[in-house]
Amino acid sequence: MATRSSTLETTLLALEILRRIPRAPRTITTGELHAQLAASGFERDIRTIQRQLDMLSAALDIERNDDAAPYRYQWLPHAKPLAIPHLNAQESLLLTLAEEHLRHLLPAHLMKSLEGFFAQAHRNMEPDRNAGLEREWPSKIRVVATTQPLLPPTIAPGVLDTVSEALYHNHRLRLDYKNAGGRRQTIEVMPLGLAQQGPRLYLVCRFQGFENERSLALHRILSAEQASTIPFERPRDFDLAKYDADGRFRFGEGERIRLRFRIKREVGHHLLETPLSRDQTITEADGDRLEVTATVVDSAMLDQWLRGFGEAVDGVEKLDSGAP
Question: Domain WYL spans what residues (predicted)?
Fold first, then answer.
């Protein structure tokens, strides 16, 4: 039984290595493979992985570039890499779409552990593969911007990986942070959530010694490191969905108000189709205007939205949410 178990472990390791070797012109080093395997639960020393690579490259269409250290490996262009397990066209489509939209919202080690699947999915969607109508689907759909498109800000190398890993494992973070006003400070925080708002990523956290939550823009974090490897207990009173519903990502404090304003009919007609709230009411006002009343969260983003209509909006009132 011991021999059979050892053989099985060796076979599984070889399959995991084969799944992660990219097709030319991309390459991968022994160190990169070692990190990916460790993230997937295969704790092996780098010498063991190196021996496996030497045997696999000698037996299969895997090229080892040993011109300089570290050695780099790749499937040869004509090779047919192993597909383990095989992904059908529908699964390949799902994975390619998931990779695009979850790239910044999954912990780094999970993304790395899925790299082999993503690579296989992309190969299956190539024009020379029998992907059929599934291959055409990505060109038929689009998530479009509701505001002026902006390029994403630059995040310092390693910051997203460190933040997502600490968030995943409930480890405290030590950050070198510069706020929008240019003030720079070293802070220790308890990471509680990660949110994507348009092109920006925000870390929701609690500063050491405080009980309230704050949102920090990831592109303003100059460097990040785990302050402790001892997991903390997540606050029972924190809910990321409620944090969002309270308007905290819209620069609000969770205060609900009864908003009332008038808007030109031709400008505000869309509010009949996409209301501000479930209790929204719209009535005829003087001339060509509509009077809109809705319970919403007060926030700076709400004020900006109203100002965006210019002279098409007037008579803005913010009343107590219990007002008639």
Answer: 159-225
0.70 cut: is pTM over it?
no
Range of the domain at 267: 250-320
Tally of domains in the chain: 4
**46 and 103 belong to one structural domain:** no
Q: Is residue 146 part of a domain?
A: no
Number of H helices, E strands in the chain: 11, 12
CATH number at residue 289: 3.30.70
116, 122, 175, 253, 289 from 103: Cα distances, Å: 14, 15, 22, 29, 44
With a cut of 70, list the residues of the chain below it in pLDDT: 1-8, 80-87, 113, 128-131, 322-324
The Cα–Cα gap between 302 and 289 comes to: 20
